[in-house]
Q: What sequence folds into this?
């Protein structure tokens, strides 16, 4: 039972204190005690005079003082004495008498003004780390290498409007598509979305066409609601992600399963670090199902991912 | 490394400076004392008392005879370095922002703030002429009509004074004629600090526009730029390596409104040739207001808004470190 030996043994915290501070029990009160005084009188307690011992190049100063509980505390400070060679003027200056507010200080550093701080290390930044930092700072650079932008005409790594074959290949493909009744880009599109809206920017000269003037714009009452529901159906929830996960990582991870329409990675507002879960919306429900089968239980960054269907939001 | 912490001030440090030999370290803060410390062990040698307001600047001559300090109590005071006795009191109309001895120690320069209806002036006094001190009559007083002076150092051979202004301008004033010999505007904001290299061929400026720049002392030609994300309060050139150290951080008035993590209160070391950062040292709780390299290049000190001065002796690591390019 802890109650039994509690009084006999000091707790570990007390032991530590004793080691560091050398708390000595109060000495028996000095001899002349006429009446026990109710208030503790400090003058009754005789403090030993400070001692200074120099042993080789180690100077030890022992001081005694009273703490708030009127316990006597012994303070031992150890200094290393070093002899250094210095130029004559410097050596002469070292023997200058102290003045101003330090006039009555003892030789050697005064602990009231000079202390030794905690160990600090210089953090070195190698150029390699520096590069990494820069990459993080500019996610667009990272995306460039991953061929996020893919031309619909030549499948190159640029926007369709910038395609060098825009004027040659483009119209040809368009003709072909017109003949076949579907555009090239149509194959990659999920069944739910409208072909015209995506195709519109390619049309004719590649100039920007406001949505209202595009082919799709003529259709009335096409709201986002049904699409959104379709998205929800093909949305998966990924949990147990590591803190360092970025959207691009998720993109890399899930792209093989099919085209992704949206990635939402929950992030901490202040630090920008991942909160450990994300929602991925695929265009097709089959892709989402394959992603669940494929990635669930997958070890990623030392963590085992948990992937499941996202529950449709309540509103 | 284990920095030595000097607790001689009650308020934010404004400037720290080593003497030419590097054995003494002078510190001033926004309190009225001027402290002097032995840099080797952080022992306080003494204080130069007399000022009644924040002390903005301090300087010591090369042979450690005199100490000069300029304060917001509208005075510049000359002390005996060894005894701490005040030798002269030079009263001014507004706060003294910068001061300095020329390399001979005979001529002093100080600049006053544009304040309370008074203009910004750079004054020159020859200490060999006692009447100049007694009558408080500088032999030359240059009015500075434009932006006020926020930092200044003597150029090589005591021929001119380099001043940094509130609008980011640099001017080279001749100490003989008082004319502007050269001018340059590379910074877009206030220049907080100017420190020259040991051989005085170049100097580094620290500016509120988040950069520190190296210039040639005579032509004021811009040589190098070091960029950070925070205002730079102080910058120093290493006397032995092609390194500079930058100190600064968020402005003191914004510190309480943002998290400490993004304060960036570290001292940052840059390589001069490639203008890239290679190391950082943490420690201060607030922005670093002043930095100085020991003349032997083996230690440096920093004084911060937190009121502490820290003397850092470099680890062997620092000397072994070779940045990859």
A:
């Amino acid at each position: 039972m802890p109650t039994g030996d509690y009084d006999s043994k000091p707790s570990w915290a007390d032991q530590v204190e004793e080691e560091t501070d050398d708390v000595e029990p109060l000495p028996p009160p000095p001899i002349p005690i006429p009446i026990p005084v109710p208030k503790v009188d400090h003058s009754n307690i005789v403090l030993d005079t400070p001692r200074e011992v120099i042993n080789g190049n180690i100077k030890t100063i022992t001081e005694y003082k009273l703490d708030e509980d009127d316990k006597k505390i012994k303070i031992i400070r150890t200094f290393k004495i070093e002899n250094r060679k210095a130029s004559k003027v410097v050596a002469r200056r070292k023997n200058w008498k102290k003045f101003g507010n330090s006039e009555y200080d003892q030789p050697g550093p005064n602990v009231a003004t000079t202390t030794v701080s905690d160990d600090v290390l210089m953090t070195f930044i190698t150029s390699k780390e520096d590069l990494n930092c820069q990459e993080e700072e500019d996610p667009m650079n990272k995306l460039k290498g991953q061929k996020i932008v893919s031309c619909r005409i030549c499948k190159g790594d640029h926007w369709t409007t910038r395609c060098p074959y825009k004027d040659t290949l483009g119209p040809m493909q368009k003709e072909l598509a017109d003949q076949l009744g579907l555009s090239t880009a149509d194959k990659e599109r999920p069944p739910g979305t409208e072909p015209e809206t995506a195709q519109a920017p390619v049309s004719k000269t590649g100039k920007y066409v406001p949505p209202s003037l595009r082919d799709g714009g003529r259709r009335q009452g096409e709201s986002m609601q049904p699409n959104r529901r379709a998205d929800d159906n093909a949305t998966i929830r990924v949990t147990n992600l590591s803190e360092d996960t970025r959207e691009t990582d998720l993109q890399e991870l899930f792209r093989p399963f099919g085209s992704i329409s949206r990635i939402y990675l929950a992030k901490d507002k202040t630090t920008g670090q991942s909160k450990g879960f994300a929602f991925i919306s695929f265009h097709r429900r089959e892709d989402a199902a394959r992603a669940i089968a494929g990635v669930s239980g997958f070890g990623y960054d030392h963590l085992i991912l948990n992937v499941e269907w996202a529950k449709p939001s309540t509103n | 490394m284990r920095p030595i912490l000097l607790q001689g001030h009650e308020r934010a440090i404004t400037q720290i400076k080593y003497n030419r030999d590097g054995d003494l370290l002078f510190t001033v803060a926004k309190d009225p004392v001027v402290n002097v410390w032995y840099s080797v062990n952080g022992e306080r040698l003494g204080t130069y008392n007399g000022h009644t307001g924040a002390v903005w600047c301090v300087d010591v001559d090369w042979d450690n005879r005199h100490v000069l300090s300029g304060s917001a109590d509208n005075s510049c005071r000359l002390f005996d370095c060894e005894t701490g006795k005040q030798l002269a009191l030079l009263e001014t109309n507004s706060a003294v922002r910068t001061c300095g001895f020329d390399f001979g120690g005979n001529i002093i320069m100080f600049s006053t703030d544009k304040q309370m209806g008074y203009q910004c002036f750079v004054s020159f006094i020859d200490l060999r002429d006692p009447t100049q001190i007694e009558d408080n009559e500088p032999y030359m007083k240059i009015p500075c009509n434009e932006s006020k002076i926020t930092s200044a150092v003597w150029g090589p051979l005591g021929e001119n004074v380099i001043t940094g202004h509130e609008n980011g301008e640099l001017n080279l004033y001749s100490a003989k004629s008082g004319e502007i010999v050269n001018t340059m505007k590379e910074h877009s904001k206030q220049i907080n600090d100017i420190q020259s290299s040991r051989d005085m061929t170049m100097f580094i400026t620290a500016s509120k526009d988040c950069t520190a720049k190296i210039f040639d002392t005579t032509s004021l030609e811009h040589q190098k730029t070091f960029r950070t994300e925070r205002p730079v309060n102080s910058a120093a050139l290493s006397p032995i390596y092609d390194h500079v150290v930058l100190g600064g951080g968020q402005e003191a008035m914004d510190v309480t409104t943002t998290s400490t993590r993004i304060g960036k209160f570290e001292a940052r070391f840059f390589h001069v040739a490639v203008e890239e950062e290679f190391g950082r040292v943490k420690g201060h709780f607030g922005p670093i207001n002043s930095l100085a390299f020991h003349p032997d290049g083996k230690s440096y000190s920093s004084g911060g808004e937190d009121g502490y001065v820290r003397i850092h002796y470099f680890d062997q690591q620092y000397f072994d470190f070779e940045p990859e390019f």
